[in-house]
Specification:
Elements lengths: L1 H7 L13 H15 L3 H8 L4 H8 L14 H16 L4 H6 L3 E4 L6 E3 L28 E3 L3 E9 H5 L3 H21 L28 H20 L4 E5 L1 H11 L8 E5 L7 E4 L4 E5 L4 E5 L3 E3 L13 E3 L5 E14 L5 E4 L5
Parallel strand pairs: 1-8, 5-6
Antiparallel strand pairs: 2-3, 4-12, 5-7, 7-13, 8-12, 9-12, 10-11
Helix pairs in contact: 2-3, 2-8, 3-4, 4-5
Length: about 350
Amino acid sequence: MKHESQSAFRREPREPVVGGNLFTRSLAARTIASLRRSQVADVAAEMWPSDRLLHQHITRAASTPAMTSVAGWAAELAQKRTADVIEALGPASGAADVLKQCLVLDWDGAGLIGAPGFAAGAGNSGFVAEGQPIPVRQLSVGPAQLQPYKLATIAALTREMVESSNAEALISDALVRSTGLALDAVFFGSAAATAAQPAGIRNGIAATAPSANADGFQAFAEDVATLIDAVAPVGGKGPYILIGSPGRAAMIATHYISFKDETQFSVVASGAVGNDLVCIAPKAVVAALSADADVETASAATLVMDTAPGAAGTMGPEKDMFQSDSLAVKVRWPVSWALRNAGAVAWLTPAWK
C-alpha cells in the first residue's frame, strides 16, 4: 500500500517540447483565428498541440508559474521569442543575418530605447603607477537612440491558403519574405532617418577608395583589408561581416576565402547593396524589434492592389475580398536600429569581378 500511495502522487514528466518558429506560428495562428472569429490560443492548441512554448507565448499565462530558470518552460521562451523573429526573416533578408550577431533588444511596449554608445580606443585607458591617481576621461560617444518605427504589409490570401494544412508556410511566405526584403532595402541603405523609417547604416558614411591593383585576387585582398582596417578601431579583432550581392558573396566564398572560422569573419548576401562591398563590426550595432507582430484581417473589404499607393484617383485596380473569397491580412511589425559608433561601418565599390 505504501508503494501504491507514493505512485499515486508521483508527478508525470512533461511531454517533450515539440517546437517550431514562434514568430511564424504565432502569425499563422492569429490570421486563422481572425478568419474563424475564434481565440488564438484555441487555434494554436488545435494546430500545434505539443508546442508548449507557443502556447506560453500566446497566452502569457500558465497553470503553474512560468519561471525563466525552469528548463522546458519559460527559460526557452525567453531565449526564443526575439531569436525566432530574426530566424523567420533569414531566408530572404541579409539584414536578419547581420542582426543575429548584433545587440538585439525587445521593444516590449517601450516608446524609446537608449543603448550605450560603443567607444573603443587605446587613449581611453592606460597604465598607472602605484599610488598615482587614475585619470578620468569623458567618452565622446553618446547613447544610441532607437526611435519606434514599423514595417507594414498587406497581402490578399485565398481562403483555401489560410485553411490548408500548409497555412504556416504559406502565410509566412507571403508576409515574412516580403518584409525581409523591405528590411534589407532600408537597413543597408544610406538614406537619412525620416518619420517613416530609420536611417540606413551607411547614412553619412562616405565610400572608401577601392584597390586599383590589376590582379583581381590581390585587389580583393586589399579591399577586404582596407574595409576591416577602417572598422578595426571599433571592432578590434572581430567578428566582422562582409556584405555583398548574392553573386559576389558566392564568388567570395568559392574563389577567394574559405571562412572556416566564422567567429572572426562571415559573408552575408543581400541584393540591397548592389555592386558595393560593405563591412560591419556587428557588436557596435543595436536593434530593437517586437516579438509579436500586430495582425489584422478582413474578409469583406475592398483592397487597392497597388504596391505604391498614392493620392485618391491615382491608385491601382481594386479587389473585393468577399467576392473573391479571399482574406486581407495586414501585419505591422515594430523594428528599429542604430549604430552605437559611426566607425562600425565601411564600404566601397570594388573593381574586381
